[in-house]
Amino acid sequence: MSQIDKTAMLSLWQFQEKLDAIDHSWTQYDHIEQLKHHFSDQLQKLLADSKL
To answer: What is the pLDDT of residues 15-38, one digit of tens each?
Structure first.
């Protein structure tokens, strides 16, 4: 494994730990369309709440 791969993995693990610390739940998608739909819904909620 190259150094860049180790660095990328460390960054990923640190990010995951931050998400765990705020009780963020992971969502798994069977298809890319599910991800796109969920992302769009989340953006709409942020827009409705004037957070964007």
So the answer is: 999 999 999 888 899 999 999 999
Q: 């009780």: which residue's tokens? A: 23
Terminus-to-terminus CA distance in the chain, angstroms?
A: 40
How many domains, the chain?
Answer: 1
pLDDT of 49 > 80? The answer is: yes
Q: What is the C-alpha to C-alpha distance for residues 18 and 10, in angstroms, rounded to an integer? A: 12
* Contact (Cβ atoms closer than 8 angstroms) between residue 26 and residue 16: no
Domain hosting residue 41, numbered range: 3-48
